[in-house]
Amino acid sequence: MITFLIVAGLLVAGALLMVVPPLLGRGRAVSSAPAVADAEQAATAMLVLREQLADLDAERAAGGIDDAAYARSRDELERRALDEGKVMAPGGSVRPARGWAVLVGLGVPVMAALIYLGVGTPDALDPQKLARQQTFSPTQIREMVGTLEARLAKEPDNVEGWAMLARSWLVLEDYPEAAKAYARLAELIPDNADVVADWADVVATKNGSIVGEAEALVARALEIDPNHVKSLALAGTAAYQRGDYAAAAGLWERILARVPPGQEVEGQLRASINDARGKAGLPALAAAPAQQMPPPVASGGNAVDGGLKIAGRLDVAPALREQLLADDTVFVFVRGGAGGPPIAALRFKGSELPLDFTFDGVPRMSGNAPLPEKLALAVRVSKSGGVMAKTGDLEGRVDGLAADASGVALTIETVHE
After folding, report:
1. Given this model, what pLDDT does residue 410 score?
2. CATH number 1.10.10 is the correct assignment for the domain at 311-415
3. Cβ(182)–Cβ(199) under 8 Å?
């Protein structure tokens, strides 16, 4: 209650500081024009950031990341959301009006208090009540999952839908159903090490051990990407559970070679390695100087990040030109060549096509994660305005692109079924 009142008082004071000085003649006219293109780009980024935040919450609920990593990732998403939300607003100028200044200075706080008491929700000041209001019950989540399952019955090849279903079952801690969803997802994108590793993690949780079925899936993920970090971690855990401590240490050391010096995870990983080495009768690792740490290796689809600069021209095939309406929302996504969440996105209106586009300078949804060696560029004309694909949407795709590819011809040429 006290905290709320303090914050509310500060907000009211801040509002008065912006209103009263100009009324007293102490302000000066300000004028600016809103940057429409920037605002649309910010809105696009916000849509994808919300999707990533939901993925992050689901991964934490499933135990895929610890609290510290979750907090860091959420802070980064919130910071980027705030950056994207900054939009210029037009200002104005007024003549001194001291009477109005006094009236506003006294009336705004009183009116704010009266309005809140009349139409506000005082119960929202109670954290326990607020938490109960903001939390979905398991029954509600299951109803949403049921709706998603019904949709996937009609759209069995919807990759994003199956990924969402798998994460939903993880939130509900129904690991057998989550494993089934990941199995289907792995059928749709069989060469994605992230999907197979997540599948293995779920199976290990379901069985209570990574040895056996889950370990076989980990081996499959490492065949796709021998340097896949999560797969190496799971494989090391399996070796440790079997009592093969030397193998566990070796697998974890391959992860350590890819961790930049000075990060918190480096110390935790080194401690686990030394524990395994000690049980294997091997000497502990010496603390290596930062300059002796090997740089990340570009293998298994990972590449040193040189910046995302894909550029080209977007057009629609003549056969679909009449289906593209002026108010349709057009999304252009960059993804990894093997699939996964969007790395960056642009948004346009149907009336703007054909047009030239570039991702040079566009904020990435994946933060500072290294870019894959090969990228895919996809376009979706969303009839609903949402980022999820639906029947009737128009699509197009170009694969095998480098991060600095230019002159790319991206054409809207298919209808999503």
Report:
1. 94
2. no
3. yes
